[in-house]
Amino acid sequence: MIKYCKKCLFPNTKPDLFFDKNGICDSCNSANIKHGLADNETDKNINWETRKKELSNFINKKLDNNKSDYDCVVPVSGGKDSTWQVYVAKNILNLKVLAVTFDQFDQTKTGIHNLKILQEIGVDHFHITINPLVIKKLVKKGLEIIGDPYWVNHVGMFTVPINIASKFSVPIILYGENPQFEYGGPAESRSKMIMDRRWRQEFSGMRGLREEDMVDEEIELSDLTLLKYPDDTILKKSNISSVFLGYFMKWDPIKHTTFVKKLGWKSLEMPPAGSWSHDENCDMEFIDIRERIKFLKYGYGRATDQLNIAIRMNEMSRAQALSIVKKIDGKIDKKNIEKFSKFLGLSKEELVSIINSFVNYSIFKKNEHNEFVEIIERY
Ligand SMILES: [Zn+2]
Q: 26 C-alpha to center of ligand 1: Å?
């Protein structure tokens, strides 16, 4: 039966989320140890001064004998966090930065504007556009097989930068937050500093689908060159390490947003359907469709993710947040159904039928208007 965290609004149906004996999820417990509020023996508060020193030692060690013209690759989507990472890498850590963007298939006008902010920071910047015809097929397969049209984006974001780093022998890749620490995951993965092949396979949103599984009569392995994770032998030789900056520095999305806005970074005029925040997913036109499927699978959507952060920062009560998510979670923009079905070469009915095929009948039932409604009202 579906149960909810006593502090935030995450349900126990969320993949990789664990609850302690008091009914608190590990995403809430992570927030406590991050902010120095943990009061039990298993969860020790993080000493951010020590972590800062760890970062400096790590960088010094990696850059000893660095023969590349660059010190680090920073994967950039154009979101508030990755823009902030580029600034920190260049101006706080004094690194020679190569920014790398895996161009998303549904980039928005706001997203394109925000990527230009990097020109203000002043770094070399690669945009990698993988054959859009191949990407379209991968978007469709991700949607049909695991219910995630952004499968290819997860692969691109966690694979293209390492392939570029490998070509230019850049020793460090700086990712942002560790999603298992911020949003919940097994204990071992929550305290992880390194992003490696195993992490990518288990936690990056690939959901068990590997790039080679996508090969069929229409897609060849050679179409996926930049989406293939490099061989271990190549990685060992090149001595590249991908790390989460969020392990070393306290992750604060609100601070990042305030900071990048001073550089000209823009929020969305309106949150996307199904979302609460103006500042998140500014570069993903079809985020509402992905989140609708997540809602049907697990009983929560994007607004829950966003409002949980507000609850943990004591900006909103759980009850207030609950009344908002009940109205927003899982909502979809009808125009996007039309646009996205056209993009995929499907009829609207075919797309809706794929979306609805992921419904979890232990959470939802159909009402008299043929709509999915929760069997037990969220609490
Ligand atoms: Zn929680």
A: 6
- Asked whether residue 44 is domain-assigned, the answer is no
Distance 184 CA to ligand 1 centre (A): 9
Q: Which domain, by its residues, includes 160? A: 51-248
Low-confidence ranges of the chain (pLDDT < 70): 40-43
pLDDT digits (tens, 9 = 90+) for 333-347: 999 999 999 999 999
Residue 87 lies in a domain: yes
Residues 277 and 207 in one domain: no
Domain count, the chain: 2
Question: How close is the Cα of 308 to the center of ligand 1, in Å?
Answer: 7
Ligand 1 centroid to 98 CA: how many Å? 36
* Global pTM value: 0.94
Q: What is the 3-state secondary structure (H, E, C) of the chain?
A: CCCECCCCCCECCCCCCCECCCCCEHHHHHHHHHCCCCCCCCCCCCCHHHHHHHHHHHHHHHHCCCCCCCCEEEECCCCHHHHHHHHHHHHHCCCCEEEEEECCCCCCHHHHHHHCHHHHHCCEEEEECCCHHHHHHHHHHHHHHHCCCCHHHHHHHHHHHHHHHHHCCCCEEEECCCHHHHHCCCHHHHCCCECCHHHHHHHCCCCCCCHHHHCCCCCCHHHHHHHCCCCHHHHHHHCCEEEEHHHHCCCCHHHHHHHHHHCCCCCCCCCCCCCCCCCCCCCCCCHHHHHHHHHHHHCCCHHHHHHHHHHHCCCCCHHHHHHHHHHHCCCCCHHHHHHHHHHHCCCHHHHHHHHHCCCCCCCEEECCCCCEEECCCCC
